[in-house]
Amino acid sequence: MEEPWDFEFLSRIADSCLSFLSEFVDDWLANDMRVSIFKILLSWLIVSLIGIHFAWKVYGNTVNDMYYRQGTGQNGGTPDTAPHLGGWESRAGDTLKTHRD
């Protein structure tokens, strides 16, 4: 019983896609200013994406190495604590500051 509904739904989707494509092709072949601007912007987008792709292929490892910290520690090459500081502990003579200070 559900098969006719599925077939009808799929045929509606196919018909709407075909009608959209036929209208798009008709507009594409027209020498309208709107279509010309669309063609220019579409070609600019495609060329930019291709350029980004090739640039990432060439310089991707270099960029990744610049921002990837190598080594051991909490954040790669940084030590867990600074050697001249005692971490969160304060000296006995230090007074603790509050928000009012």
UniProtKB/TrEMBL annotation:
Ranges where the record places region Disordered: 71-101
One BP term from GO: osteoclast fusion
Similarity field: Belongs to the TCTA family.
Domain of life (superkingdom): Eukaryota
InterPro entries: TCTA
Organism (species): Stegastes partitus
Primary location: membrane
PANTHER family referenced in this protein's UniProt entry, alphabetically: T-CELL LEUKEMIA TRANSLOCATION-ALTERED GENE PROTEIN
This protein's name: T-cell leukemia translocation-altered gene protein homolog
UniProt keywords, alphabetically: Membrane, Transmembrane, Transmembrane helix
Biased composition (Basic and acidic residues): 91-101
Location in or out of the cell: Membrane
Membrane-spanning intervals of the chain: 37-59
GO CC aspect terms: membrane
